[in-house]
Amino acid sequence: MTETLPMAGATANVNLAGLSKNDYRGAPSTLCQGCGHNSISNQIIAALYEMNTVPEDVMKFSGIGCSSKSPTYFLNRTFGFNSLHGRMPSIATGALFGNAQMKGIGVSGDGDSASIGMGQFKHIMRRNVNMVYIVENNGVYGLTKGQFSATAEKGLQLKKQGENPYMPVDICMEALVSNATFVARSFAGNPKQVKEILKAALAHEGIAVLDIISPCVTFNNQENAFHSYAWGKDHEEPLHEISYIAPRSEIILEREMEEGEIREVDMHDGSTIILKNLEKGYDPTNRYEALRVMEEAQRNNWLVTGLLYINTTKPTLTSIYDLVETPLNRLTEADLRPARSAIDKVNALMF
Amino acid sequence: MTETLPMAGATANVNLAGLSKNDYRGAPSTLCQGCGHNSISNQIIAALYEMNTVPEDVMKFSGIGCSSKSPTYFLNRTFGFNSLHGRMPSIATGALFGNAQMKGIGVSGDGDSASIGMGQFKHIMRRNVNMVYIVENNGVYGLTKGQFSATAEKGLQLKKQGENPYMPVDICMEALVSNATFVARSFAGNPKQVKEILKAALAHEGIAVLDIISPCVTFNNQENAFHSYAWGKDHEEPLHEISYIAPRSEIILEREMEEGEIREVDMHDGSTIILKNLEKGYDPTNRYEALRVMEEAQRNNWLVTGLLYINTTKPTLTSIYDLVETPLNRLTEADLRPARSAIDKVNALMF
Amino acid sequence: MNKIVNDFSITVGTKNGSGSSTANNTILRSIFKMGIPVSGKNLFPSNIQGLPTWYTIRVNKDGFIARQDTNDIVIAINPDSFGRDLASVTPGGAFFYSDDIKQPITRVDVSIYPMPIKSIVKNDPNVPNDFRDLVGNMVYVGVLAQMIGMDMDTILAALTFHFKGKQKPIDMNFNALKAGADWAKTNLEKKDPFYLEPMNKTDGLIMADGNTAAAIGSIFGGVQFAGWYPITPATSLAEGLNDFLPVLRKREDGKHTYAVVQAEDELAALGMAIGAGWAGLRAMTSTSGPGLSLMTEFAGLGYYAEVPVVIWDVQRIGPSTGLPTRTSQGDLSFTYFIGHGDSHSIILLPGDVGECFDFGWQSFDIAERVQTPVFVLSDLDMGMNQWMSKPFQYPEVPMDRGKILYEKDLEEIKGNWGRYLDKDGDGIPYRTLPGNKHPMSAYFTRGTGHDEYAKYTEDSGAYIRNMERLKVKYYKAAKYMPKPVFHPVKGATVGILAYGSTENAILEAQYQLGNEHGIKADFMRVRAIPFTEEVTNFLEKYDQIFIVEMNRDGQMHQILLTEYPQFAGKMKSVAHHDGLPASATWVREGILAKHKAEGGKPKAATKKKTAAKPKSSATAKKKK
Amino acid sequence: MNKIVNDFSITVGTKNGSGSSTANNTILRSIFKMGIPVSGKNLFPSNIQGLPTWYTIRVNKDGFIARQDTNDIVIAINPDSFGRDLASVTPGGAFFYSDDIKQPITRVDVSIYPMPIKSIVKNDPNVPNDFRDLVGNMVYVGVLAQMIGMDMDTILAALTFHFKGKQKPIDMNFNALKAGADWAKTNLEKKDPFYLEPMNKTDGLIMADGNTAAAIGSIFGGVQFAGWYPITPATSLAEGLNDFLPVLRKREDGKHTYAVVQAEDELAALGMAIGAGWAGLRAMTSTSGPGLSLMTEFAGLGYYAEVPVVIWDVQRIGPSTGLPTRTSQGDLSFTYFIGHGDSHSIILLPGDVGECFDFGWQSFDIAERVQTPVFVLSDLDMGMNQWMSKPFQYPEVPMDRGKILYEKDLEEIKGNWGRYLDKDGDGIPYRTLPGNKHPMSAYFTRGTGHDEYAKYTEDSGAYIRNMERLKVKYYKAAKYMPKPVFHPVKGATVGILAYGSTENAILEAQYQLGNEHGIKADFMRVRAIPFTEEVTNFLEKYDQIFIVEMNRDGQMHQILLTEYPQFAGKMKSVAHHDGLPASATWVREGILAKHKAEGGKPKAATKKKTAAKPKSSATAKKKK
Ligand SMILES: Cc1ncc(C[n+]2csc(CCOP(=O)(O)OP(=O)(O)O)c2C)c(N)n1
Ligand SMILES: Cc1ncc(C[n+]2csc(CCOP(=O)(O)OP(=O)(O)O)c2C)c(N)n1
Ligand code: SF4
Ligand code: SF4
Ligand SMILES: [Mg+2]
Ligand SMILES: [Mg+2]
After folding, report:
1. Are B212 and B135 in contact (CB under 8 A)?
2. Alpha-carbon gap: B30 to the closest alpha carbon of chain C (Å)
């Protein structure tokens, strides 16, 4: 019986990289209680821990927003850049040239990527930068207190904002049309799936876009937030001085979803999301199929989750540039400054 | 026999609006001889003339680029705004609120819309602004002398630029995914089709995206530009002082294309474009079909032309705002400044 | 112990997102309704829930309502900031705290009042579980009310206003408040000196925040188009438009005379507004620093193509993202020089909530008259905090749409016009609007070189003529600018020049300098750039002028140096940048330091207060 | 008639896109190779084909090679500008034209030479039809060569260089040229006074444009990452990287030590460069005005997060899109104040092509040493025109990577560091780079408020400390800046301060002022902001200093006023903005006008030239 016991002592709590889960954590979160983003941070920690990734081998990036704050809350030992609103892609693109052996993990929001950041979002897809690009998608601007983002569904009603008259930006369709090489969708309330998709994404060479629906428990709560109290409606505030937040629990599926399964999830705001897992036979290497499924999902208002598309044949941006082995940021003057003799050659070229 | 004669005298040269074709022209073009953009300008003039549109009922817009210069070369009697690189959509969006009865015609380039302008391009689609949005698509930056734009095909080789390693942005797919309500593709060398699509687009209420392939005879001419002269290659310039342009004729189909027809067109640079007209039975109201056709075209490297998608049920941006009949820019102080009594009401609201 | 009446500060330390703003506003409004000059400043984090946040109230019978650096009364509800909060009480002050916080009380020089908030709320059967924290906040208001003498009727009025007369929340909150008051009455013994007593100094005044005022002012200015993108602290300006437009511009037919569009970003927000302004609408956008930076290219287009548009910048502190919830006057020099190439910006500088309203409508008149972007630089303190103000005044002049040619005008001049011709010698050309049916009305606007007829040109002469005209236009536009506000004192030998939200702090400092340090200073608050002749005259007059502002680099000082090199020697920069609303302390100390450096000999501080005190701005204005 | 030798200007008027640049360059290079100081300026439209374009060459034996306002020899090939071209010839000048242009010759005061270009080319059986226009350009070169005495051997050398030794195009072009020369020899009689005679004043010099020089300089600076977006007149800088990196950084293994990425726009271009700079690469971008405006927000991030990056702004004229193909120094004050909030920019100001090379590599040293964006402001004239220059000099100092902590450094200090700690009192903190394996190496960069350890904070104290340190850093960084260049004259009583590409014009004006107007002026060319002490001393020294620049608002003057209020009274702005490369005329007239306004009494112009002439900059430098 002794053979089946786990290894004795401290090693039981470390992974193959010799690190404990703590080595993957960040500062305590300052996001709202119950925010979907926190649950995603936890899965990032878990996935990297389980994949035995060394935190120093990763760079983390974000834009601006509640979602974009979250890299503070994981991977303390990882270099990170909390950049500008909508501009994570360009920062990450440049930074990853610094050391092409490192993997990027980027966290953005729907406002950050689909509104102000649409251009950069689309262009980083085209370039196939080697990073996991997570959109923590809640349909609102959390940090600026609940305006519609470009992924808000048509007809959504929000306090002070009225009704959204526009069709939502579909992050996955956008990624696919821009020839992203890995496209998946998940739901923060389904941590198991989030983690598994994260692992696949981390293993992918190239851009891996994860559209993770991540409820904003504070600002997507207008309609029925107080529905158990008759006077709830009375409490609405005309002069926007108040930002009252009822403490909420995270929305979590009680049971993992089977392939092909359809399930309804009640949100804090009283609305319902229809989750649908991809079918068993679904072939994620077929871009055309992926488009079909997404079009169908959009028409039926389903939230289809799972790995929608993967293409492992396309070179990453840094490999297109055919860089030297040594990380560029370890090169020295000897590598970078042409020899003294080169100056005469150059002057000769000048007439 | 006299009955069938056209009306006598000067009226023979005017349309139902009482205007001659000259009333639709602009300043002489300063674009290169043979540039596809000129041919599109001519069709804009022809389409509006034939549709009896009053030039004062239109606003014209553009960004920056050779293509974006072209609104100078049509519709002298029309208010126009040659804006900033990539920012035509926002200017047009605001301007068309000035008088919601007027139609917008915007001319942009592939660099202007798919590179720097990607964000605004996508968002004007979502808003369904009431305008014809023409992308004069040549795969290069003409005005800055021949760099790759985001619509350049993968593998394209350009002088001084090397080889393009990225997949092209597909203007029509982008428009479709962003829920544009009218999406068409055409070819500047097919003026008849361009004109007919333009007329349909002008008649459409909402955003009509026309992706018109419009060859840049000057900078998409690297490979075989001099192919009839053995020494052509020798003439290449390392220090980019020269911009030699052989005078070229416009690329024009000799014969209009039948529905469903496939035809090869030789370009000045020696490359070939495979044109494919949409099938007879094609249903442009089916968004899913449109996606399928475009995916297929992309896979086969076909240039599928025709009206890809139309949806006439969606409200335009200005109609969502439910504006007064009178154009907003004709309202007066009486309409715009609340009555004197309102000030007390407001002060009362202030505590 | 001497009573201190109507002259102290109160700071409440809570957690963000805990709903304390209703409570704090109730305190503020109640004091205001008691007729006592008061101000409230919300010092909140850039976060939605859980981080420390403070609300600080200044009560001052003389109308000095700038933020006070010291905290006389502190109410501590947040365990995370308890230590800091306790330490921050001035000696002799009062410290109230929620007694579920079990942390050491280390001070013996302050009056300590524990409050059993949780248990009071728990005992109220009318408060549902979910609402305990929220309503709990009312308990501390009740305790405080009891202890300093806040009037229960005015409190009820404040709550009634707050909840728009809806009885259920009013009752629930007022009950909790009363429970707190009752408990305090029974259980607490007054040990501190702070008391409220009714006055009549706020009669006829209103309370509002600058963003709401700006929104309403814009509506009275006939705003027709606003493009915007959310950003703290400017968001509530656009949301104010959304709130008040449907009310103030309601029509019988239910149709709309305006559109407010949330853009995808700030480039598009200003782009749309410029498009609308060009098309003849009264168009605006509102943003803060990062958004303004993104608007740079469009601002240059607006300047060069001469498009009327109003751009509100509600300033927050810092380069880059900085501190999104802290105030500043740090965007001035950037705005002045915004955009590559030679350019000049018209900048309006409201100093209080009333001026946010006034400049709300005036900015459109100026933009259309001068045909150029008009920047209005407010700040977080003015924009988001509640300020006492004279009531908003209905615009006393009709709208000035500037030089527009309609069909009949063109007929009169036989279509003979040029978009950029300087017919009147004031540098301002005539424009036409899309939709004009006259066949000669159209022109093609561009950001590229153009001649007097809006035709494309690269001609040097045309370029220079155009640019020199723009310069003439800019300086001549000074006559349309709001004049500076002048606060003289008798026998002044030096000047103070400032702008924006610092006025209250400077008035107080001006008083202190005069009465305690023997430095008599006239104070001019500049309200616009280009500068009007009053500014020139003011600078001319004194041997020393202190330029006071809330930024690091002395940005107004920099601009004045470029415009008034002849006065360079006597202008002294007094700049401060802590992100907090201005206080008299730093103004006074800053001026004293510079004054001393210049060899000035301030008199020793005199304790005796003179009878003739200058009125504070808000109360002074009421009388006008 | 007196011969005028090596002292005149030539202007060729053609159509854009007609391929005349080979011809014009051949003239320029041939004269250069004859040892005569020469410059060439391309005045081209913002268009690809068909619009009038001019190329103007200044030949001057004394080395005064600024653009000359007058045209001594004009060659007219373009019917569209024929009238203008003819009118532009100075009386006594020469006018060559293509005789297929049938337009009236209205001048009798100039020598007229018709040239049968078309028929000469038609008669050459070796020229294919398509190439007739192109090769036709060589005919006018041949005619001119014959008439003014250009050396055929140097012409052949120029063509050989141009066509990289490829015989076919060399022959075809040289044959056409010779045909032109032969025709002229037989058919034209010399009536004008202009002659070339060989000298040795260009020995050892090279000819290059500033953008190429900047690209090559950057490569010698070890550039590793460039993000860029096409824009005139900056495009050729990035394309220069693409041209020369593969040559100069070729490796045995064919792998690359660099990446040049064409971004989707300028926001992304600078964003990528900042990402790369942050990750430890020598990173840059290059743009012009509109692109710079779009980079504003990122520039602020770079400043506040302290990321080394180099930003080249090759200036063109105008706010907004302006005149994309005209030169200017109009982005200076915008760059200085770029970004909302308090910020300061380090700005390098190269004055010639050699300095474009030098600042190409020095800018990286400065950016990494100071950890901040470094802006290099070149302009279209310097960037795109061919200038004589001393040969590029290999950097004489090793790369300065600034304060970087690697694994071993962190081990030494036991991981005990803070990203924004000012350990050395110079305001410059230490940084680590991603990929550093030390577990204490990582930090989280942000544009939000941060403390010394890069942790998020909203604390006022931390904010002020950080911002004050940034200010210290900025001013202390002056010691890393290139020193100004000083051109003294004997007995100077006034000063001229300028920067950038105006040097040649100012040297000539300086000479004229001294020798013809009795105004002896020392001239300092500033090469960087923050200003070094030499600038202070210079300003201190004279009663009047003329600040000369190519913009409307006197932007350097503005900045100097903010930095040196004590000298405000004596600094006079001389600004000009016609979009053309600087000429001595406007510098001289501008200074005379200001000098007069100040009551200066210039001596009447003296015709007698003094023996001791100052050397022009390019020839002077060669000797160093
Ligand atoms: C240039 C700029 N504009 C606006 C803002 C204000 N801002 C901060 S976060 C945010 C929206 C964030 O929304 P999203 O990306 O969806 O993130 P969430 O908070 O919902 O997670 C905005 C508009 C900013 N920081 N910078
Ligand atoms: C902000 C900005 N960046 C760059 C430029 C330079 N520029 C002018 S036109 C152009 C590209 C135009 O390409 P495209 O839109 O495809 O038009 P085309 O000339 O090919 O018709 C660029 C990059 C500019 N004017 N503004
Ligand atoms: S506001 Fe919404 S998105 Fe932001 S932290 Fe709270 S729950 Fe999350
Ligand atoms: S460069 Fe190309 S796009 Fe521009 S005008 Fe010439 S042919 Fe047209
Ligand atoms: Mg969001
Ligand atoms: Mg193009």
Report:
1. yes
2. 11
Spatial CA neighbour of A210 closest among A183, A242, A239: A183
Spatial contact of C300 and D321, defined as CB atoms under 8 Å apart: no
Helix (H), strand (E) at residue D204: none
In a domain, B255, yes or no: yes
ipTM score of complex: 0.95
CA–CA separation, D274 and D276 (whole Å): 5
Per the structure, the complete domain to which residue A323 belongs is given by: 21-334
Answer whether residue C409 shows pLDDT above 70: yes
The alpha carbon of residue C559 is apart from the nearest alpha carbon of chain B, in Å, by 29
Chain A's closest residue to B154, CA to CA, is A126
**C21·A242 Cβ contact <8 A:** yes
pTM for the predicted model, two decimal places: 0.95
Spatial CA neighbour of A174 closest among D388, B174, C39: B174
Any domain includes A263? yes
| Separation in Å, CA A91 to CA A97, A111, B342, C432, D227 | 10, 17, 50, 44, 11
User: Do C437 and B327 touch, CB atoms closer than 8 A?
Assistant: no
pLDDT tens for B265-312 read 777 667 777 778 888 889 999 998 899 899 888 888 888 999 999 999
Q: Which residues line ligand 3 (CB under 6 A)?
A: A 31-32, 35, 37, 66, 138, 142-143, 216-219; C 48-49
Mean pLDDT, each 10-residue run in order, chain A (351 residues): 43 87 96 94 97 97 98 97 98 98 98 98 98 96 94 84 91 97 94 94 96 88 34 34 55 80 76 80 90 88 91 95 97 97 94 82
C538 and C545 Cβ atoms separated by less than 8 Å = yes
Do the Cβ atoms of D573 and D597 come closer than 8 Å?
no
Are the Cβ atoms of C447 and D322 closer than 8 angstroms? Answer: yes
Q: Going from the N-terminus, what domains does chain C have, and what CATH number goes with each?
A: 4-195 (3.40.920.10), 208-389 (3.40.50.970), 407-479 (no CATH), 486-597 (3.40.50.920)
In a domain, B11, yes or no: no
The CA-atom distances, in angstroms, between C191 and each of C94, C110, C147 are: 8, 9, 9
In the predicted structure, residue C617 carries a pLDDT above the cut 70: no
Check if the beta carbon of residue C73 is closer than 8 Å to that of residue C94.
yes
Per-residue pLDDT of D577-614, as tens digits, reads 999 999 999 999 999 999 987 776 655 544 444 444 54
Contact B265, B213 (CB under 8 A): no
C61-111 confidence digits (pLDDT tens):
999 999 999 999 999 999 999 999 999 999 999 999 999 999 999 999 999
CATH of the domain at A228: 3.40.50.970
8 Å CB contact between D45 and D52: yes
CB contact under 8 A, A84 and D161: no
Give phi and psi for B257, each to the nearest 5: -95, 140
Report the domain count for chain B.
1
Within-domain flag for A8: no
When CB atoms are compared, the residue of C296, C326, C336 closest to D293 is: C296
